[in-house]
Amino acid sequence: MNVMEMFSLKGKVALVTGAGNRIGYGAQCAEALYEAGAEVYIASRNLDKLNSFAANYPGMKVLQLDLEDEAQVRNIIPQIIAKSGKLDILVNNAVARTALARWDLPMADFDRSFHANASALFLLTRIAAETMKNHGGNIINIGSYMGICGLDHANYDGTGMQTDGEVWPSPAYHYEKGGMLNFTRWAASVLGKYNIRVNCVTLIGLEPLDGNRNQFHHQHAGRTLLNRCCGNEDLKGGIVYLASDASAFVTGSNLVIDGGYSAI
Fold it and tell me: Across the beta sheet with 39-44, what order do the strands follow?
């Protein structure tokens, strides 16, 4: 097969969760899969944002998904199967940003966060795998450098965020993204016999679309080897690679796209 043909996703059906926000990772994932030829479904809680985003891509489809609603998590993939007959690619990008204020939150607040960002991820991945087990497929989890690193105080000095103050920051996001990485390895080890590949992408924060950086962006960018945060196209190549036959022998891996942040 010609190497460029390996990257084609023509005939594939994909679901990207958490898409619809123009400045989010999900937007890049959906756009990349669409441009590579896949039939793309995007899903999040806000249908208005989804429809606004999808209007730029003829044929892109929208579905509502709230990770805190188990019924919606269980029903979204059957909806895709009913309309398109199969699912080949799942990108687990959606995240519920709760329990982030501080460390001393009630346990119920942390439970709510873990319910959406861990339990719902497990469920959606399992349902996707059940539909893929007869023909293979790809599952891509969108992680964060916070899943492989601790907090760097220099990123937050003078911003009033995270470690800039006496309030101890919440461990929830680090805990969830670190767990996602090992869940990726675990799922790959369970699903490989069905030719279902499971990989993770570790990312860093996004540059503002308007280029108007605040202090956090400047400090964050200064910690990378390329002196910037993630641009609005930096994720696209990696997503198509992992979703396509170009990575046919890659599973259980973590593709780090962070401008070298974690290299030092």
Answer: 61-64, 39-44, 13-17, 89-92, 137-142, 196-203, 254-257
One-letter amino acid identity for 112?
Answer: R
Q: How far apart are CA 58 and CA 8, in angstroms?
A: 18
In the chain, what is the greatest distance between 2 CA atoms, to the nearest angstrom? 58
> How far are the Cα atoms of 36, 51, 169 from residue 11, in angstroms, in the given order?
10, 23, 45
Look at phi and psi of residue 115 and say left if phi exceeds 0, alpha if psi is from -120 to 50, else beta: alpha
Contact 50, 20 (CB under 8 A): yes
Per-residue pLDDT tens digits for 59-98:
999 999 999 999 999 999 999 999 999 999 999 999 998 9
For residue 87, what are its two tokens? Answer: 């699912």
Structural contact between residues 170 and 103, judged by C-beta atoms closer than 8 angstroms: yes
SS3 140: strand
Tokens of 133: 């087990």
As a whole number of angstroms, the distance between CA 18 and CA 120 comes to 13
Tokens of 86: 């199969």
Instruction: At 258, give phi and psi (nearest 5°).
Output: -140, 20
Strands (E), the chain: 13-17, 39-44, 61-64, 89-92, 137-142, 196-203, 254-257
Distance CA 2, CA 12 (A): 18
**pLDDT tens, residue by residue, 161-206:** 888 889 999 999 999 999 999 999 999 999 999 999 999 999 999 9
d(CA 229, CA 119): 30
170/197 Cα distance (integer angstroms) = 32
